[in-house]
Amino acid sequence: MRAAQLTGAFGLDEVTIQQAPEPPLEAGQVRIRVEAVSLNYRDLLIAKGLYTKKLPFPLTICSDCAGTVVETGPGVTRVATGDRVSPCFMPTGSAAPSPTPPPAEPSARLPTASSPKPSS
């Protein structure tokens, strides 16, 4: 999978798109084909090293996204493969962004009118 990451130092110039391994899904997690992503204020603070400097590298940012569920882990009942969702980036209070698949329960289904449109 591709991920926006800081690999060894803080700073906006240090953010690069990296190939990262896809971790296996655990109970209650979903895998999403990301179709839209944004750099929110929290991501900006993390990238600049102003959120906390105690986060381990490589560090994945861009925690706001929307996409389609392509795989579900055991026990997932709220969403299904093919559902368009926007996951909650911090459902358990963790401060560290990661490429770990998001839990399904905090994921919100998106209305069909919110289909991604190519940028011009």
As residue ranges, the low-confidence spans are 91-99
Number of domains: 1
Measured as a percent range, the helix fraction is under 10%
CATH architecture: Alpha-Beta Complex
Q: What is the averaged pLDDT score?
A: 80
- The strand count comes to 7
The coarse silhouette is: elongated
What structural class results from the helix and strand content?
mainly beta
Radius of gyration: 15 Å
Order of helices and strands: EEEHEEEE
Described by strand count, sense and barrel closure, the largest sheet is: 4 strands, antiparallel
Strand order of the biggest β-sheet: 3-5-6-7
- Number of helical runs? 1
Distance between the termini: 25 Å
CATH C-level class:
Alpha Beta
Please name the fourth-level CATH homologous superfamily: Medium-chain alcohol dehydrogenases, catalytic domain
CATH fold-level topology: Quinone Oxidoreductase, Chain A, domain 1
* Share in β-strands: 25-35%
Notes on the protein architecture:
The structure is a single chain. The protein has 120 residues and is mainly beta. It has a single domain, classed as Quinone Oxidoreductase, Chain A, domain 1 (Alpha-Beta Complex), CATH 3.90.180.10. The chain contains 1 helix and 7 strands, in the order βββαββββ. The protein has one helix at residues 41-48, and strands at residues 2-6, 15-19, 30-38, 59-60, 64-72, 84-86, 108-109. Strands 3-5-6-7 form a 4-stranded antiparallel beta sheet, with no helix packed on it. 20% of the residues are buried. The model is unreliable at 91-99 (pLDDT under 50).
